[in-house]
Structure formats: structure tokens, C-alpha cells
Design goal:
Blueprint (H helix, E strand, L loop, with lengths): L17 H6 L6 E2 L3 E2 L8 E3 L4 E6 L9 E7 L14 E7 L2 E6 L6 E5 L4 E4 L4 E6 L6 E7 L1 H5 L5 H5 L7 H4 L11 E6 L1 E4 L1 H5 L9 H9 L4 E5 L2 E2 L8 E4 L6 E4 L1 E2 L6 E7 L3 E2 L2 E2 L6 E4 L5 E6 L6 E5 L4 E2 L6 E6 L5 E7 L14 E2 L6 H13 L27
Parallel strand pairs: 1-4, 14-18
Antiparallel strand pairs: 2-25, 3-4, 4-5, 5-11, 6-9, 6-11, 7-8, 7-10, 9-15, 12-13, 12-14, 16-17, 17-19, 19-27, 20-26, 21-28, 22-25, 22-27, 23-24, 23-26
Bound molecules: fe (ii) ion.
Fe (ii) ion binds next to loops.
Amino acid sequence: MATAPAERKSTNSWWQSPYDRWLVTQDVPVFTGYYVEDLRTIELGWWELRGCPGAVLNLVGHQGVTEAHILQVPPGETIPPFRMATEEIIYVVEGQGIATVWAEGHPQINFEWQKHSLFRIPVNYNYELSNARGDQSAITLHVNLLPMAMGTNPSEDYFFNNPYVDTTQLYGNQAKFYSAAAQPVRLSGQASFSSGARSMGFEPGAGAGTLAEDRRSSGSSSMRWYGNFFPDLSVWDKLEVGGGAGRLSYRGGIFFPGSAFSTSLMVLPSRRYRAAHRHAAGVTIVGIQEADGFVLMWPEGGDYLVAPWKEGAVFVPPYHWYHMHMNAGSVENRQLRIRAPRPGANPSADPNRTIPFFEQDPWIRQKFEEELAKRGLTSLMPEEAYTNPDFEWDEEWLKED
Ligand SMILES: [Fe+2]
């Protein structure tokens, strides 16, 4: 469902949120609907707030939790400095350049980004993005918590003209805030801290709230890599097998220390898919390499919506819509998930959170095999998984070819 810019709506409807009311004052194309086919080719328009071409993605699944937007940095240019009282996660869709980040009265920190880089701008830090190339635009995807945050305080001044900044983030003991060397933390009941992780402020029993929360949400042992700048997610190779029965995939444990967001890199080898699941809203999912597959999304009892899974595609599953990721191509598919806090969500209380293969609508398998056949490929899904409720998934399956 390609999504044209939404028509402007009245700003005084009682049901509109503070974010909705703010958004209609912005002179930028706003995309609604369920997904965007390719961030690299959608219509952009001049956005006065940012001083560059852009577009806002206010997709159905963002549902007042998160917002995403695209900025275009023209060839050889630097877009104006910007700061906002909510953190931003930035993924580079296209191009290469330099980010400059600073707090007022403090030194500027620079780092170079490129296509497939991922980085975080902390709350209220000024930042500029410069395009290092003279022959092509850079395209960046920004995800933030503005819809949820504005629901607690609708003051635009608070968000866009707020001098408060926690200088310990860039200028405290995290002297290498934007180091490209992510720090490993092994989570297995008791977290195992490297010296690098300690330098980022992770100390057992030292109030590392993020880690404590991560341990609660983590099942088995897993490695997490903490940083604020990941140079190229398309070649990130610190992957582990995870996901459980019917949900196996490779996962990259990419995290931002102290961030409200958590991110997840999911890598699925060709000709496979994962069982459907559902959860709360606000997870922005991006295809980050030359992937060739599709995504199914549907509300319980409702029709299927088919979205592309390819480079530059974005989809955001709406609240409690089932969704599944199908790699129908001949290469591995990667996707980046940018997850927001989801207050009130309790996935473990949902007995129908996932749909096992043996209970799956036969149409799904048929659709998958049809898509493979179009490409001259055949499925690597284990036949027995469709019939045997006790089928045991073996992670070696991910290596089959
Ligand atoms: Fe999901």
C-alpha cells in the first residue's frame, strides 16, 4: 500500500493528539498508510523546520508512539544545526558524510558516516549533517519519540527550544561516545562486562538501569554490543542464532547505552521465513540491504496486507497485528528494527503471540512458494514443521543451502 502524502486535516479536532496538531503545522509531505516501498524514491518536500527537503512517516503502526522522518542532504551541503528534547536514532539510507554533534559551549564531536550507518543523537544535543559527496544526495532516516513525548507536554518550545542538556553523555566518562568500536556485554543471568563496557558506564550493581531491564527481557545467553555509532550494518557480522521454535534467525545484538530505544538486527538466510507473531505498536522496521522478500501483516481475523521486504522498505506493524518476514530471494535478507518503549505491553501475557506453523493458514505457505517459483527457487522450510506440533527446530537449518 504505497502511501501518498496525507491531506491536511483540521487542527482543532478533539481526538487529535498534540503531535497530530503539531504535524499539521509542518510544511512537509506526511506519509500515512502501512508501509513505504522505498525510502530512496519517495516524494520529499522542503521542510522549513529542518532547512532541507524531507518527509514524515506517520504510519498506522506508529500509533502515537514513535515518528520517523526522512531528510535529504543535498550534494556538498550541510543542513542547519538542529536539536530536540527527545533522542533520535538515525540510519543512513544513502550517501556518506560527516556528523557534527555538540552541546552549547562545548567542543564539537565529528564522525564520518556512510550508507548503512546507524547512530544516536542524545536529547537536546545540537547536530549537523554534512554531505561529503558532491555528486549525490544523502538520505537519512530519523526515528524519535515525539508523538509519545508530546502527549505528556504539548509545548513546542519545550521540544525545539530547550537549553537543558546532559553534558555527561558526550563529555563525561564516555570520551569515545561515537567510537565505532562497540562494547560487548554477555547477558546470561549475570551480565559479563568487558573493560570497554565498563568505560561506557556499565558496572554490575551500579545502577545500570538499561542492563537490568535488558536482562529481564532477555531469555537465554546472548551477546550485546553497545555503542552510539555502528558504521555499516550491512556487514555487521557479530551475529548469533536466536528466536526459538519457528522463529529462528541470526540476530545482531546492537544496542545504545542508556537509550529509551532498543534496536535489533535480524538476518534471515534465503528461502526461509519465520512464524507470525504480534506485539505492541511503534516498531519501525527497515530493509537494509539488497533483500528480496515480502512481509505479511494482518489483524486477527482480517485480510492479509503484503508489503515489500527490500532495501529502503519500511514497515511498522500496527498494534497486535500479526506479521511475518518471508525471504523469497536468493540472498540473505537483513532488517533493522528500531523499538520504542511500549508502556503497558506485556507480550508474555498473550497466549496467541505467535502462530505455530502447524496452525498457520495454508495460504501463507502457498504464497511463499509462489513467490519463490517466480524467481526459480524452492522453499527450504522443513515439511514436518507444517504438520508436527513437536517438530524440533535445529539451528543448523539456517545453514542449509
Ligand atoms: Fe515483530
